[in-house]
Amino acid sequence: MADGFILTIARCVPLLAALVGSSTLAQERIGTTSQPLSVQRASVWPSAQIGVCWENPGNNATERGWVRAAVQRTWEAASAVRFTGWGTCASGTRGIRIQIIDNHSHTEGLGSRLDGKANGMQLNFTFKNFSKSCQSTRQYCIEAIATHEFGHALGLAHEHNRSDRFDCAEAHQGTEPDYFVTPYDTTSIMNYCNPTWNGGGNLSDLDRLGVNVLYGKGTAPVPGSSPETVSYKTFNLEQFETMFVAPNGSLGLVWKVNNSWWKGPVSLSGPGLLPQGAHISMVSYPPNNQLEAFYAASDGAVHVTYKAKNGAWSNPIRLTPPNTVRPGGDLSAVFYPLNNQLEVLFIGSNGALNVLWKAQNGSWNGPAALSGPGQAPSGAGITATYYPLNNQLEVMFAGNDGGIGLAWKAQNGRWNGPFGIAPPRQMPAGGRITLQYYPLNNQFEAFFVDNSGRVNVLWKAQNGRWNGPAAITGPGTGVPGGSIVASFYPLNNQLEVATVGPNGAVNLTWKAQNGRWNGPVALSNAGAATPGSPLAMRYQTMSNQLEIFYTDPGGLLNLIFKAQNGAWNRPFRL
Ligand SMILES: [Zn+2]
């Protein structure tokens, strides 16, 4: 998925072909001559708040209500877009000006080119002259057509105009797009080849994702799960433990012992502890053989749940005051061998980089700010990892400018930074990033998904200077700033990187023996995972397994794995 729809269509008959036959469309005139040939981002409104008014509201309160409800249920529910106003247009009223007319419904341009344009959107409420077949399903037609036309008003071109379309023979309408936000989508409400006329008035998954990318996320939470997993070695056992957010907001756990079948799930808290989609960071802490899990609970306090010597799990314990960090935000817990320290890094509510720590399993210290405020959004994606050379602890996050900040300490001395190590506007502010040690050549490698959906790497070798970022995949491999995980896999000295594509497929990129990057390959069908939702990946010694956990659109936990570096198994639900 690329970064912006392309937009230029002027006139469009909304997908009536399937309903009334192709003759209407075939006769449609396309107003390209007066349209700019490539507008792209320039047609995306600068704000997600977009004014709407009616040129001639008339006695159509019921129909106007259908239109407003339809766009609320679709574009607004999916994103931060809010259509405001909806009164009668005055001279000079900005935004989208709608004329009610028994005409072929269309817009007189795309996106912000409609700003203040007289009769910029024309909607048919009666269908006495045009689209007469809609007379028997008037409400359905009005809602479905309005949703399509408001797609144009948001700057979206016809999906079937794309150069990468397939299985679609509809004539192009309007200027060709040259900039794609998502992979080609037959089921888009903007696609005349949608097997359901006008998508039945509903957005496709990729329509929802696209409008999110263009205008910001909606308030609907990412559902459930948010897995995090760790290998816990206790006595002569190797346990694999995976935590997740249950649908009722409790902290859930599944586990297996010595690679036998999974047990659980069990709840380690009451309901409502965690918001949906909350991040969890788990770490093995060798002193006292503890396993600890950290998360930003619904009250905005960092909490820990832990067990010692494979005993009973503790109740959730609050480590900070409430409102320290965005509820459910990211944090990164890491064992730092010097002084047996356990450190938890996060971006606090004022945007400062913060650390909580304990030494020799003593009491917790902090939170202490390691930077000034305003570095990154609260709860921004963050990764802290130990680098053996010089006993360094390094932490990276995506700052407010969409660049990447790095802070570190050596030999348990003072913290340095944060410093920017990549230019701004690489990725969405606060997006996800993961940092992994790769033993060959003592490399340290960080991965993120850039604004074009490409997986990027930053790396250093032998503790030299940082290099990159460099893209190691094409566009559309991941969701910009979305979840990404990396793991060293000892067989064949592989480094493996997984992300979820905008189409909901789990995509894997890897290298062996520090050679070229391979992939991406999809390990699941499209739609298997929730795009952008957290992932977890861990190596398990037994059977040399590598396991990837993800959340499906129902909010449930799923697993993909390989053993002995063989083929990846098909995903299954835990
Ligand atoms: Zn159209």
UniProtKB/TrEMBL annotation:
Q: Which residues form the signal peptide?
A: 1-26
* InterPro entries in UniProt: MetalloPept_cat_dom_sf, Peptidase_M12A, Peptidase_Metallo
Could you list this entry's UniProt keywords, alphabetically sorted.
Hydrolase, Metalloprotease, Protease, Signal
Q: Name one GO molecular function term.
A: metallopeptidase activity
Is Metal-binding there in the keyword field? no
Q: Where is the Peptidase metallopeptidase domain?
A: 41-217
Domain of life of the organism encoding this protein: Bacteria
- What is this protein called in UniProt? M57 family metalloprotease
Organism classification, top ranks? Bacteria, Thermotogati, Deinococcota, Deinococci, Deinococcales
